[in-house]
Amino acid sequence: MHVLNTKFVTIIITFLFFGLAKSDKHPLHVSTTEVNFNAKEKSLEISCRVFSDDFESILAKNYKQKTDLSNPAMKAAMDELVKKYILTHLSVNANGKSVKMSYLGFEMDHEATNIYLEVAKVSAVKSMEVTNTMLYDIFDDQMSIVHLVKGNVRKSTKILYPDKQFSANF
Q1: Is residue 163 part of a domain?
Q2: CB neighbour class for 78 (10 Å; exposed up to 12, middle 13-18, buried from 19)
Q3: Is 137 left (phi over 0), alpha (psi -120 to 50) or beta?
Q4: Does 120 fall in a domain?
Q5: Could you give the 3-state DSSP secondary structure of residue 166?
Q6: Global pTM value
Q7: Quick check: is 94 in a domain?
Q8: Which residue range forms the structural domain that includes residue 54?
Q9: Whole-number pLDDT of residue 70
């Protein structure tokens, strides 16, 4: 895998989320995941962004129940489904060791859903690895854009199905 230019990745994300999402069906299936080491808080801050229609489809398929991420009356039920799904399809290693992610919640942003997680008590980071299989169980053309960030250093790549991992040393 090769590291992508940050400007290029930003252009792709902007195009995909705001250009293609205007049509009823978007031709590409993409998610983004960022893992940011917060040295001051000694934590990893993790955010994922995925098209809401795709995400609702996989939640409904996997958990055999009605899904509506934008319905405030269903927020608690949707939180449980999102938490269950994300914690089984995303994992992070720091310094070669698996870390326990805490689910913080999700929010809607136009056609996308943002999901937030955190890993506490990470005093230093020399390496990070992400394993991401979000939406792999519904789309065989899934692309995951991953950013690993420590201070001013950002390492990014795209992971194409069936590949699922990206790691970087800092």
Answers
A1: no
A2: buried
A3: alpha
A4: yes
A5: strand
A6: 0.84
A7: yes
A8: 6-157
A9: 95
